[in-house]
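Last lecture ended with a question: if I hand you only a sequence, what can you say about the shape of the protein? Today we answer it with a concrete record. The protein is NADPH-dependent 7-cyano-7-deazaguanine reductase. Below, first the input exactly as provided, then the predicted structure, then a couple of comments.
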Amino acid sequence: MPSQPSKELQTFPNPAADRDYEIVFDVPEFTCLCPLTGQPDFARFKISYVPDQSCIELKSLKLYMWAYRNEGAFHEKVTNTIADDIIKAIQPRKLTVVGDFFVRGGIGTIVTVTHDKSKQQA
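The predicted structure:
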């Protein structure tokens, strides 16, 4: 059976939870729909994080990102939602999500969301 899009992010235990290290995902083929026109918006996402106790499972991230394909979403909203969902799933020590939306009407948009767990607890 073929894979289906899903908003469920699967996780697995961090194999080196005693150490800070960075994981970077490059998602060059993200698509969603413009909520005003219904036309497709294309973007490249870069997600980098320092895991705490859990890591994101790669296939579930692929299916999660695919789930936006038929959704209308402003660039700012979708980038913040992706960050919020990852934070909820794994509570990373640090997270940066960069949505680099392709030029439309002569304007490209880059939205960057950052999270630092140590600053949240202070």
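Comments.
1. The longest strand covers residues 23-33.
2. The radius of gyration is 15 Å.
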